[in-house]
Amino acid sequence: MRYSTYINNQKCLDWGLNANQGALFDLLNQSVSWASEVVIEGVVYYWVSRHKVIEELPLFYKTADTVYRHFVELNDKGLIVYLKQGKHGDKDLIRLTDKGKTWNEFKSDLSRDNSEINPSLPNELGNESEITRKQIRDNSEINPTDKYINNKNTKDHIKKTSQKKTALLDFELHFEKFWSAGMRKVGKEQALKKFKSVYESYNAEYPTSLEDFTQMLIDDVAKRLRLKQFGFDNLHPSTYLNNWRWLDDYPQEPAGQNMGKIQSDDEFADNGTWGVGRKLNIDPSLIPEYLR
Description:
By secondary structure, this protein is an alpha+beta fold. 47% of the residues lie in helices and 8% in strands.
């Protein structure tokens, strides 16, 4: 639970927000320091759970429905971009708009009055006001919410972003190995997304390295192609991944596929050319003509 909340009264009045929405927006303004990143088409969003909001702001929110409704209203006011993801649309993704990022900006009423009523006041007063605003803007960029959010968060954020980019590149390299395993090469972008999400799901249930997971798929594809599994050569890679088809049973080995010719030094051994005698394992010349 948050012990303090900063509400910009002037912004709330300008944007038409009530106290609850102001507290919520202050929490969203700090999401960069505590929420998980989700990159969609190169744009960074932050996963802000409705239950997390209730946990952090118990004075303002009691139900997830109210949080959701205020997410939508903030989106409609152009303060945030709000997306829902997940199988059931229960993953709330948030990012601030340019308008929303002005939450920490401050404009002195004294400065506004001086410029409108007494435009000819000495420069010192105007300069002091400008310095004050500049200090607040600079401080808000380094410390977006309060004294506990400092430059360390910025460095941590950069480090975290760099690590995620490295992880994404690693996924792409392993995906290329899977992509070259022999399946149909269709829907590559969609297949890459499935490869990443399916690995994460599989790893959560059966912990395994990305390298081992990739090799498992490559071996599975090779075996099914060798066995000429019906329809497998036309299977979409995304379908294969999404349905965990590597767990399917393999088709039976074709009869005799792994049986070579039985070598024998016996001159009477069956060489495949006998008639009646091939099952009797005797010299065909000893079999009467009418039985041949």
